[in-house]
Every structure is written in structure tokens, then in C-alpha cells.
Write a structure and sequence with these properties.
The complex is a heterodimer of chains A (420) and B (503). Chain A has helices spanning 2-10, 19-45, 53-67, 76-90, 108-111, 122-148, 154-163, 165-173, 177-192, 196-203, 216-222, 226-247, 250-259, 277-284, 290-312, 322-335, 348-356, 363-381, 391-419. Chain A has 420 residues and is an all-alpha fold. Chain A has one domain. Chain B has 503 residues and is an alpha/beta fold. Chain B has 2 domains: 4-134; 163-494, Alkaline Phosphatase, subunit A, CATH 3.40.720. Helix content of chain B is 46%, strand content 9%. Chain B has 17 helices and 9 strands. In chain B, β8 (478-481) and β9 form a beta hairpin. The longest helix of chain B is centred in the N-terminal third of the chain and has 31 residues, at 104-134. Chain B is elongated and about 90 Å long. The chains are: A mainly alpha (420), B alpha/beta (503). Chains A and B meet through α3 and α6 of A and α4 of B.
């Protein structure tokens, strides 16, 4: 006992740290760094200029919904009127990021939960919303890991989820990805429990960002997963009916009109900052001719599609739908036309599931947490030299593409061995 | 707390009442909510009872009552706010209850009821807290008001104080609304009225102007420091218990009030054209909820806020003055007719016209129509008002055995070029120019001051008729700063300047 105490007392800082201790130190350091970035942005730009920019549109949409009607939420001129007021009230005058109107391309029913936030001033509402999102992330991560079982260090997994780059950006912008996280988690849990119709109902929650379903839905059709598909359609129909109840029949046309502007040149789409091949081509165009950059991008898209579809043919009992879920999502994030980094938050669901099933090693979790974050900091630090760099987006793109390639071309050998 | 399972629909009604009040907090005092708050009890009990008869399940009955109330007795914003809180709470309760590993199918109804109860109670707390924080608390004790005195009641002369809301002077109407109103002025003069051709109000808002004239003083002289307040109703007590009313009442006068706007009405014998008169808050509540759909059924009995109601107030106002002129005196008839002030609901012949917007009485920069609509509407409506005013005067004179005192006054002028948030973009001359005509048989025109503002009307009349010795106050004119209606800017020097920017 005495000897142990002496050992502890004489141990210098960081001396003889175990791997786990380094990881914990890293997570805590990361948390503080994020807080620092958050505070610095608030100090320099104010609120709703960069921090909370997406919440600004949700808040203004809720205002528009109650004053002008839900169907008007998709009118960018009306959005501008409301958002500009919030911007003027809160944002600091900083010309580096000029004002741009952010659209809310969600079904009207998804705007209803934002209406109570208009009871408070935007700044207070953003704080409440962030706390609620944080609470929901913690609670849901807790539920998901417990339901999955097999993970002993739940607390650190939850901390890992919270300090992951997509999670940080979700809170930073005031995004709705916690909803995507919950829906995907419940989709997976329902599938595991054999409740396929319910799983489809949960997946319909993803209709909030329909561009994220470009691989999942075709895969379900390919695999003839009729029950989840029916659940998904029923859920969507329910959401459309509810939306029509609150917004009348005009909203759908207005929503579609707004949606078709997305692949185009909506200023706030900011395609250069995405984690897809589109961003890759756009960023590369600054260095090499645009057509060549796009050729590379199309090549990447092609390879990724082939790899993803190849995985559709692999059946692995232990992995269940974990592998296609992970790879379909990775491919989606890399190919879909609107794909910002924060959207990748739900990837933690298939990752944790596959780790628990011992289909992929634990270090993939550490890699997924650390690599995008390193890319993010590198991008941040090199802003002085390359102001328009997208290192974080490119890092995420390469990581997601690598995951798909690895699962398609390397991991099958492992499966084959396993089966033999 | 167990009762919360059933009383939450009642809580929803009360929350809705308070929420609507929050939006009218500067226009009406909290007391006006009382009648509806009590009416909520039988509504809730009735719904719960009928629901129970149908379902034989108190939980289900409460839930049905809740949604019926949400669909009928709430405004859109309240509805979606509660719905939003319910959706968030559903997710929250689901997450929390799942963390406790409760079985899924059995807890769904519990989650829904809990979320609804949570939403209604949290909203009640929210609205109550907001009202407690925002409701004006002021030291509104009178200072420097004239002493009350008794006037000799011999002979018993009736006094009619007829306020025509927003009626400008003939000069201003000609200048800004391009209408020659001289015929009406001539008719008044023919009947023996002294018409002050260049009369200006002391304030640009009704509540200020009337509380000032009825208390025979400038507003800041009989209120405490309320400079930063926005609530109009802070002056209601000053109008209801005004110096003029108290003096006349203590001298044996019967007070009769005819008016559509409770905030600026006297406290005694108020006459209404409806069996059930609604106060300002109730009108606001009806207009903002689905209750307004009952208008076709109940509008003959209850004052539903609508253009029809407005027309009825105006026509019945003139009619009631004529009826009351037959009653024995001495009496003080105070009539506040909201016309020619917007909305413009009569053409020159008195035929009904209906504006294209939802019923409201907004004026100046807040007027929902165009400048052209304002100009046309005002000119049409003023001709209708002129005809009714002359008919009313004739009836009063015909029915009075002793020649009465009749004061016809605009509380402020038209608001074609008025923006309370921008004094520089406001034509002070237009807004302050008012109609002021006094019928005082005992006073010769040449003994009356050439220039008079409303603050001195009753001082002059009491001095001339009843041997009081009131000092005639200097004539000052005060504009207000935006919605801070007690934050004044002295614009006396600008009142006489005609405006060029209007051209």
C-alpha cells in the first residue's frame, strides 16, 4: 500500500500513461478545444453569423409559420426578412462572412417543434435548443449502447460521440442531426428485434433530409425488404398528411421548388465545404482545370458506387444490416449533392453496432473520431495560408470512401476466412 | 397532482387567455380577462361531461376536451406552440422512460398524457411569468390636478361632449385630404356654434388627448413618472374618474357615456348597442381565435369585432345621443364616436363599405390600406359623419328646453402622413389639426379666446358658466416617441407649419 502511494506520488505528469489514459486525456483536451473554438467564434462573429446559423433559419421559419403560415417558410424573400432581423440583432459586423439567407427545406411538421422556441429571444432559444440537443444526444447514446450491450465503457463512448467532429458541428450550427441519430438508432434496433415495419417507420424520420436516402432506399428495394419499405412509406405518408394539416396543400409545391434549388447555386449551400466528391472537384478546380477535377471526381463517384453495390451482394449473419448500413451511409455522404460534415453524426450507430458484433476492430472507432478532427484542426490552422481550404471535408470524404473500399475489397476476405 | 390528469383542458383555456393577453398587454388592463376566465369553468365542465357521456372514460374525455379547446379557444400561435412543446416532450418522455426500461406499448398513452399535461402547465407558468414581468407597475398618483369644486346648478344646463375620433380641421382636410369641408362648418355656424378654424389637439393619440381634456390639464401633470411605459390603459382610471366627471357629478349632473372603446370611456351609465357588450380584451380574444366563426350566429347579441360591429357602434352612438337628449337634466353626455377614424366603413350616403383587410382600427402608418384608400375612405366617411352630427345637433337643440352646451371635438386629426416612430416623417400639422366647435349660448364669440386647445375647453366653460376661476393654461402640443406614448416631445413650434413632403 505504502509502495503504491509512493509510486503515485513520484509519477510525473503524462509519465507511463496507458493507451486508455491517453485516449481520455485526448477526449478531454478535445472538448476544451471545441469550447475554445466556440467561444472564439462567439467573440469575433457574434451569434447567428456562424455559430447557430442553422438554428437561425429554424427560428425564423417558426416565426414565419405562425405569422405568415407554414407554406411561406419556403419563400426565401420572406426568410430573408426574418433572418436579417435576427442577424442584425445578434451578429457582429464582420465582413469576412457576409449575410446570406439560409433556407429550411423541411416538411412543415418538422418546423412545429421549433415554434415554442419563438417564445424566447433567438439567443436564449439557441441556448435552450443546444442544451436540449445535448441532453437528447446523451440520453439516446445511453439508450442505444445499453440496448446493444457488449460495450463496457459506455461513459467514454458517449463522450466520444459528443466530441466527434460531426457532433461538435451539429451543436455549433444548431443542426437537427440528433433527430437523424435517434431515427437511425431505432431503425437498427427495430431491425435487430425483427420489427421490420417499425424500423421503416423510424427511417421515415430521415425524410427531413431526403438526400441522405439515395443508397438506403435502393438497397432496401434491391434486398426486397418489403416490410421496412412499407413502414417507411407509411411514415412518410403520415408526415405528409400531418404537414398538410398544419400548412394546407400549398406547401408541397413550395417545398419542391426550394428543394430543386439545392443542387444549384444557393449561396448558403456552400458546396466547397462539403464532404462529398462535388466539394472535392470544386476545391481541386482551384489548382487544376475544372474539367479534369470533375473527371477525377466522377471517377471517385464511380468507384465508390461500384464498391457500395458490391457490398449489397455480401451477406454476413453476424453483421446483419450493419455493413450495408455503414457503407450505404458512407457512400451517401460522399456522393449525395448536399452533404455537410455535421450530417455524418448518425454514422456512430452502425460503427458502434459493428464494433460490438466484432465485425470491425475497435480502432476504427478511434480512427473515425480522430482523423476528421485532425483534418478539422489542420484546416483551421492553415486558414492563415489557404483561407478557402476544405481539409476537414476532404478528410471526411477520404475516410468514408476508405471505409467503403475496405469493406468492399479487403474485409470480404476476412468474412470468407470466417465462413471457411 | 393527480387531478392534473383531468384539469389540464381548463389549464389550456387559462393559458390561452393569458397568452392572448400578453399580446394585448399594452392595450387592456388585466382585469378585463376576468369574465372569460370564469366562463372557462362551465365550458371545461360541459366538455368534460359530454366527453364522459360519450366515452365513459375520464382520461379520454379530458383529452378530447383538450383538443376541442385547442381547436377553438386558442390562436394559431398558441396552438402550434403547445403542439411543438407536446412533440418535444413526447420525445423527451420517450427517451427518459426508455432509459428506465419501461415496456413500450403500455406507456404510450401515459407518454402522450404526460406530454400534454407538461405542455399546458409549463405554458401556464410561462405566460404567468411573462405577464408578471411585463405588466406595467407605476406610481400613477395624481399630482397637480385641479381641486374639485361644486358648481351652482342653476340653471341646469345639459352638457354634451361629442368626440369625433380623428376628425381634422377644415383647413387640414382641404390641405391633406383634398376635400372642402366648409359646408359643414357653415352649417355649424348657422346653428350658433363657435368654430375654431385653426384648432389643434394637445396630443396625437386618443387616450392622451381625452384624458388631458377631461382632466383639464396636461397628462404629465396628473400622472407619476410613466415616461417609459407603453400601456395605454394606465390612463383609463384618469378618464373614468376624470376631474370634469367628478365636478359635474358632485354638482348633481347625471353622467351618461356613449362609447365603443372602454379604455377611453367614463365610468357611469355606459350605453351599448349590444345585449352582451365585450370589453377590449374580449374583442381581441375573439378576433384571434376560432370563436370569431360564431359571428354570423351571435353578432346580434354579442359585440363581435367586425366591420358590422363598427358600423353599429357609430350609428347607434349618434342615435343614443339623440335619445338621451330627451331625458331630463342636468346631464353630462360624453360620446366617443370612432369615426371618421379608420376603418372606413361608410360611404358618403351611409351605405356600408367593407375594407379589404381584417377588422381593426389601426391608423397612421399602421393603417393597412394604401394612402389613396385612406384619402378616399376618409373623405367619404366624413360626409356621413357630418350628416349624422348635424342631425344629432338638431335633435339635441330640439329636445332641450334650456339651451345646452355642446362641444364637438376631434381628439386628433387624420393620420395620412403620421408615423409615430418617426417625427420627421410625420406631418405634425395634419395630425394635430382638429375640429373644435362649441355651442355655448351664454358666451359671445368675441369673449371666447381666439385660439383654444382641448386642455382649456372645460376650464373656459367652467369659468364662463359657473364662475370658477381656472387659470387658462399655455397651449402646448406634444408628439410621442414611438410606442412610448408617455414620452413626449414638444412640437408646439411645428404645429402650425404645413407640410411640404406630403406633396
Amino acid at each position: 500500500m505504502e509502495r503504491k502511494q509512493t509510486q503515485v506520488q513520484t509519477r510525473r505528469p503524462f509519465e507511463n500513461f496507458t493507451r486508455r489514459e491517453w485516449e481520455r486525456l485526448g477526449l478531454v483536451a478535445l472538448l476544451f478545444t471545441y469550447l475554445l473554438i466556440f467561444a472564439a467564434n462567439l467573440k469575433v462573429l457574434g451569434i447567428f453569423n456562424y455559430v447557430g446559423i442553422d438554428f437561425r433559419t429554424f427560428y425564423s421559419s417558426a416565426q414565419i409559420a405562425t405569422v405568415e403560415g407554414f407554406a411561406k417558410v419556403y419563400d426565401l424573400h420572406i426568410q430573408e426578412k426574418y433572418q436579417l432581423q435576427i442577424f442584425k440583432d445578434y451578429a457582429k459586423d464582420y465582413t469576412a462572412i457576409p449575410y446570406e439567407t439560409v433556407p429550411t427545406p423541411y416538411f412543415p411538421i418538422f418546423i412545429v417543434p421549433f415554434v415554442p422556441f419563438t417564445l424566447f429571444k433567438p439567443g436564449v432559444s439557441f441556448t435552450i435548443y443546444s442544451l436540449l440537443s445535448l441532453g437528447a444526444t446523451i440520453f439516446y447514446s445511453l439508450r442505444f449502447t445499453k440496448k446493444l450491450g457488449g460495450h463496457t465503457n459506455t461513459g467514454w463512448i458517449i463522450l466520444g460521440i459528443i466530441v466527434s467532429l460531426p457532433s461538435f458541428l451539429t451543436f455549433f450550427y444548431g443542426q437537427v442531426n440528433v433527430w437523424l441519430l435517434i431515427c437511425l438508432g431505432e431503425f437498427l434496433l427495430s431491425e435487430i428485434n425483427g420489427k421490420h415495419f417499425t424500423s421503416g417507420l423510424w427511417l421515415s424520420g430521415w425524410i427531413i433530409k431526403p438526400q441522405l436516402l439515395i443508397f438506403l432506399l435502393p438497397w432496401m428495394v434491391f434486398k426486397k425488404r418489403i416490410q421496412p419499405l412499407l413502414g417507411f412509406l407509411a411514415g412518410c405518408l403520415g408526415l405528409i398528411i400531418l404537414s398538410t394539416c398544419v400548412a394546407g396543400i400549398d406547401w408541397f409545391q413550395n417545398w419542391l421548388n426550394l428543394l430543386v434549388q439545392y443542387p444549384g447555386s444557393l449561396a448558403t449551400t456552400n458546396p466547397q465545404a462539403m464532404m462529398n466528391w462535388r466539394a472535392f472537384a470544386l476545391n481541386l478546380s482551384a489548382i487544376i482545370p475544372s474539367n479534369i477535377a470533375w473527371e477525377w471526381a466522377w471517377l471517385g463517384i464511380g468507384v465508390l458506387m461500384v464498391a457500395t453495390i458490391k457490398i449489397w451482394f455480401i451477406d454476413n449473419q453476424r453483421a446483419g444490416i450493419g455493413i450495408p448500413l455503414l457503407t450505404n451511409l458512407c457512400a451517401t455522404f460522399s456522393i449525395t449533392w448536399h452533404s455537410h460534415l455535421h450530417t455524418a453524426l448518425p454514422l456512430v450507430i452502425p460503427l458502434l453496432f459493428l464494433i460490438k458484433q466484432r465485425v470491425i476492430p475497435k480502432r476504427v472507432w478511434s480512427i473515425w473520431l480522430s482523423i476528421p478532427t485532425i483534418g478539422f484542426f489542420l484546416g483551421y490552422l492553415t486558414k492563415w495560408i489557404f483561407p478557402e481550404n476544405n481539409i476537414s471535408g476532404t478528410t471526411m470524404l477520404l475516410l468514408n470512401t476508405s471505409i467503403v473500399a475496405w469493406m468492399a475489397f479487403i474485409q470480404p476476405k476476412h468474412f470468407e476466412k470466417e465462413l471457411s | 397532482m393527480k387531478n392534473a390528469r383531468y384539469i389540464y383542458p381548463l389549464v389550456a383555456i387559462w393559458s390561452s387567455l393569458l397568452y392572448v393577453y400578453l399580446q394585448a398587454i399594452y392595450l387592456t388592463p388585466l382585469q378585463q380577462i376576468t369574465r372569460l376566465a370564469f366562463l372557462a369553468l362551465p365550458i371545461f365542465a360541459g366538455l368534460l361531461f359530454v366527453g364522459y357521456l360519450i366515452t365513459r372514460n375520464l382520461n379520454l374525455s379530458a383529452m378530447l376536451s383538450f383538443w376541442i379547446i385547442m381547436g377553438t379557444l386558442t390562436n394559431q400561435r398558441f396552438f402550434y406552440t403547445i403542439l411543438g412543446i407536446v412533440l418535444i416532450s413526447l420525445m423527451g418522455s420517450w427517451l427518459i422512460l426508455f432509459a428506465r426500461k419501461l415496456p413500450y406499448p403500455k406507456i404510450v398513452p401515459e407518454i402522450i398524457i404526460t406530454s400534454v399535461i407538461f405542455a399546458t402547465f409549463i405554458f401556464l407558468f410561462y405566460t404567468t411569468a411573462r405577464i408578471l414581468i411585463n405588466i406595467p407597475r407605476v406610481d400613477n398618483r395624481s399630482t397637480g390636478a385641479p381641486a374639485i369644486f361644486s358648481i351652482p346648478n342653476n340653471p341646469p344646463i345639459d352638457i354634451y361632449y361629442l368626440i369625433l375620433d380623428g376628425y381634422g380641421s377644415a383647413n387640414a382636410i382641404k390641405e391633406y385630404l383634398e376635400y372642402d369641408n366648409s359646408e359643414f362648418i357653415t352649417e355649424l355656424e348657422k346653428r350658433g356654434f363657435i368654430v375654431f378654424k385653426d384648432a389643434y389637439s394637445n396630443y396625437p393619440r386618443t387616450v392622451l388627448s381625452l384624458s388631458s381634456s377631461l382632466n383639464m390639464n396636461y397628462v404629465d401633470k396628473f400622472t407619476g413618472d410613466i415616461t417609459k411605459q407603453k400601456a395605454w390603459w394606465l390612463l383609463t382610471d384618469k378618464i373614468k374618474n376624470s376631474q370634469v366627471q367628478m365636478i359635474l357629478e358632485s354638482s348633481g349632473y347625471k353622467i351618461i357615456t356613449i362609447g365603443a372603446w372602454e379604455t377611453a370611456a367614463l365610468d357611469k351609465n355606459t350605453l351599448h348597442p349590444y345585449l352582451i357588450e365585450t370589453n377590449e380584451y374580449e374583442k381581441f380574444f375573439i378576433a384571434s381565435t376560432s370563436v370569431s366563426y360564431l359571428e354570423p350566429l351571435l353578432s346580434d347579441l354579442i359585440a363581435f369585432p367586425s366591420f358590422d360591429m363598427h358600423r353599429r357602434y357609430v350609428t347607434s352612438g349618434f342615435h343614443m345621443i339623440q335619445l338621451k337628449s330627451r331625458e331630463p337634466g342636468p346631464k353630462f353626455v360624453y360620446a366617443h364616436i370612432i369615426s371618421p377614424h379608420p376603418p372606413f366603413v361608410f360611404d358618403k350616403d351611409g351605405n356600408p363599405t367593407t375594407p379589404s383587410y381584417r377588422y381593426n382600427t389601426l391608423d397612421a402608418a399602421e393603417y393597412p390600406g394604401s394612402k389613396e384608400e385612406y384619402r378616399n375612405g376618409y373623405v367619404q366617411q366624413i360626409q356621413f359623419v357630418n350628416k349624422n352630427t348635424l342631425d344629432t345637433i338638431d335633435a339635441i337643440l330640439r329636445n332641450s328646453s334650456i339651451p345646452p352646451i355642446i362641444i364637438i371635438q376631434g381628439d386628433h386629426g387624420s393620420g395620412l402622413y403620421t408615423d409615430f416612430f418617426s417625427p420627421t416623417q410625420t406631418c405634425i400639422n395634419e395630425r394635430f389639426s382638429i375640429l373644435l366647435a362649441i355651442y355655448t349660448p351664454a358666451i359671445e364669440q368675441d369673449t371666447m379666446a381666439e385660439y383654444m386647445t382641448p386642455v382649456n375647453i372645460f376650464r373656459t366653460i367652467f369659468n364662463e358658466y359657473f364662475d370658477s376661476n381656472y387659470e387658462i393654461l399655455p397651449d402646448r402640443h406634444y408628439f410621442i416617441k414611438g410606442d412610448q406614448i408617455y414620452n413626449y416631445e414638444d412640437v408646439t413650434s411645428r404645429v402650425f407649419e404645413t407640410c411640404d413632403f406630403t406633396k
